[in-house]
Amino acid sequence: MIFQSEYDVIVVGGGHAGAEATAAAANLGAKTLLVTMNLQSIGQMSCNPAMGGIAKGQIVREIDALGGYSGIITDKTMIQFKMLNLSKGPAMWSPRAQSDRMRFAEEWRLSLERTENVDFFQDMVKSLIVEGGKVCGVRTAMGMEIRSKAVVLTNGTFLNGLIHIGEKQFGGGRMGEGAAFGITEQLVDLGFQAGRMKTGTPPRVDGRSLDFSKMMEQAGDENPSKFSYSNTPKLTKQRSCWITYTNQDVHDMLREGFDRSPMFNGTIKSTGPRYCPSIEDKINRFADKDRHQIFAEPEGWDTVEYYINGFSTSLPDDVQAKALRTIPGFEKAKIFRPGYAIEYDYFPPTQLKHTLETKLIDNLYCAGQINGTTGYEEAASQGLMAGINAALKIQEKDPFILNRNEAYIGVLIDDLITKGTEEPYRMFTSRAEYRILLRQDNADERLTRKGYDIGLASEERLRRMDEKFKNAEKLVNYFEEHSVKPAEINEMIEERDGSPLAQPNKMINVITRPELKLADFTKLNRVANFIEENNINEEELEQTEIQIKYKGYIKKEQQNADKLTRLENLKIPTNIDYSIMGSMSIEARQKLDKIRPATVAQASRISGVSPADISVLLIHMGR
Ligand SMILES: Cc1cc2nc3c(=O)[nH]c(=O)nc-3n(C[C@H](O)[C@H](O)[C@H](O)COP(=O)(O)OP(=O)(O)OC[C@H]3O[C@@H](n4cnc5c(N)ncnc54)[C@H](O)[C@@H]3O)c2cc1C
Question: One GO BP annotation here (predicted)?
């Protein structure tokens, strides 16, 4: 017998969700087994070799602040870094990194191997062992029965996965890897609802066959930042991406393949990610646009393989090749792998609690693409939360839930379990009501103490976070106490068309002027000396500037967020009977009964539940 004892937590699947779930549960002291179909593909990036981006970068920072691994692994393996949206306010600044695909997966595997309490097993889980409404382990394709106190399902795009390239169709979880069977059928038998979604990916090509002189270079940031708040190395060299455009000839060639396209001839019926459309979808929906941007992105430091961002397609391979070779710079492109679409099963996430435990089966958790999301960051953050909560539950500790005003992760999970999703869900800044609070620069302030309190974030992380905010505060105080003289700053102000100072003024008031930056003040000798004496680093300077320049917005948003916290604290009794609330609309009663929100705030976010319905609920609860 291979398995001699029971595990605390079994994680099914070693993608982004599964890897974070494994790390979190194990680091919280749970004896954890990761069962995955292929140990070689732990932490595999199925699509784009990139982490972060708008709103997603904030999520990676949050994972890191809590003590997860995704940020550290990205820092160790990135080949290019860009802070997106720098021309907008800091709520929109979003870190994005291009990673070395092979090293990213290798680093995940090695990081998990170095984590205490983690065991590995390569096999396909075919079913769950369920006894008395509670999950007690898994059964695998090789006939193993492995018992555990909790199970986290993170099957990604593998459940009954079906790959499409033109008229060709074959089973698979992603190209080159088999699909997984059994779990959907069993869960449906147990009363779960299941659905079908689809996603797609572009071709990969040989960089040696591309003519970069016909493309525009897109280099990384001059002073690249990073994802982790811990002591990971900064990038010292970077690889560039390249930009080119499709044209009408390319579109005509693609159109020629439409009648053989599984997207258009009815073969694919499920819904794909609205914001990552395929190239055929783009030219079909935006027929008036005469070109679309294409990025050639290197897949790593040494490999010659390039990812063709913007050209996701499931058209027949001959059509893909012909159209691709009509794009400037791609005339001689050699294709390593064609683009494809994949359909897979998911479970509508309204069947989950805030902890990502299923409502139907105790101690069974679901995280990642299986919950109807798309994206590595969305998956990883759910994995982290499911791993944490599985470990906490079996240790009989309080659940760990993040509110919407505390983290994008809180927004993500609340959206999923309250509203559900009918198309692959990805995060946007617009989904967060309090995005001025949920910035990438302050995820540590928001979350590291929480991560530390549950035992996940290290003492060293907490110390770094405390020091950062103490130093920022010191500098804010300095600017509050010291004045700047007109002679010191007026030349700079006039150069930028501002109105000069007539008399000395407290620095804190002058920094807030739109034409000035904190860097203008750090040039003054006495400020530079103060910064040096107090060892204030770049990150702390950035923090100081944000706190000073956006103080008014942050304060207002915090007041609104505090109001939400009050509603969030109004817990709804779990045994509440909505059917007797006659003055509530029937729709609201039905939806509340189905979703069974945990708090009044969550109830108010369910579509179809009006403020009047909430009043009825409050009256019923005696408020
Ligand atoms: C073709 C394609 C295109 C994509 N395009 C995009 C895109 O454009 N934008 C975007 O944001 N995201 C895209 N994604 C999605 C992105 O890859 C996923 O969101 C992310 O990888 C999900 O992470 P996950 O951990 O949930 O699952 P996955 O990364 O899919 O990992 C699932 C893991 O579970 C294992 N597994 C599955 N079933 C079993 C079983 N029964 N037993 C044991 N192990 C099992 C698998 O081997 C795998 O290791 C795409 C994915 C694919 C496949």
Answer: tRNA wobble uridine modification
Q: How far is CA 355 from CA 172, 325, 427, in A?
A: 30, 48, 19
Phi, psi of 216 (to 5 degrees): -100, 130
Amino acid identity, position 289 = K
Dump pLDDT digits (tens) for 292-335: 999 999 999 999 999 999 999 999 999 999 999 999 999 999 99
Query: What is the pLDDT confidence band of residue 209, given thresholds at 50, 70 and 90?
Result: very high
Count other C-beta atoms under 10 Å from residue 556's C-beta. Answer: 11
Q: Residue 118: enclosing H or E segment and its boundaries?
A: strand 118-122
Pairwise CA distance, residues 166 & 254, whole Å? 12
**18 in contact with ligand 1, CB cutoff 6 A:** yes
Whole-angstrom Cα distance, residue 90 to residue 379? 25
Binding residues for NAD(+): 272-286
Distance separating alpha carbons of residues 356 and 509, to the nearest angstrom: 46
How confident is the prediction for the chain on average, in pLDDT? 95
Q: Residues annotated as binding site?
A: 13-18, 272-286
Rg (CA), the chain: 26
Asked whether residue 366 carries a pLDDT value surpassing 80, the answer given is: yes
CA triple 156-427-360, angle to 5 deg: 50
108 close to ligand 1 (CB < 6 Angstrom) = no
Does the structure show a pLDDT above 90 at 537?
yes
What's the mean pLDDT in 22-34? 98
> Rounded to an integer, what distance in angstroms lies between the CA atom of residue 68 and that of residue 65?
7
Instruction: From 104, 127, 142, 157, give the residue whose CB has the most ligand 1 atoms within 8 Å, as the site to mutate.
Output: 157
pLDDT of 139 strictly over 90: yes
Taking a C-beta distance cutoff of 8 angstroms, is the pair 91, 438 a contact?
Answer: yes
pLDDT at 372: 97
Cβ of 202 closer than 6 Å to ligand 1, yes or no, is no
Q: Could you tell me the pLDDT band of residue 445, with boundaries at 50, 70 and 90?
A: very high
* Ligand 1 nearest-atom number relative to CA 159: 38
Whole-angstrom CA distances from 34 to 15, 113, 145, 206, 610 are 11, 11, 14, 34, 44
Report how far apart, in Å, the C-alpha atoms of 30 and of each of 174, 389, 391, 621 are.
Answer: 30, 11, 6, 38
Helix axes 376-394, 56-66, angle to 10 degrees: 30
pLDDT digits (tens, 9 = 90+) for 257-288: 999 988 888 888 888 888 788 999 999 888 88
Report the b/e string of 323-357 with b at 16+ CB within 10 A: bbbbbebbeebebbebbbbbbbbbbbbbbbbbbbb
CA-CA distance, 247 to 338, in Å (whole number)? 20
Instruction: Pull the structure tokens for residue 347.
Output: 């479970």
The pLDDT, as a whole number, for residue 118 is: 98
Q: What is the pLDDT of residue 274?
A: 80
Q: How far is residue 284 CA from its own chain's centroid?
A: 29
- pLDDT at residue 1 in the model: 63
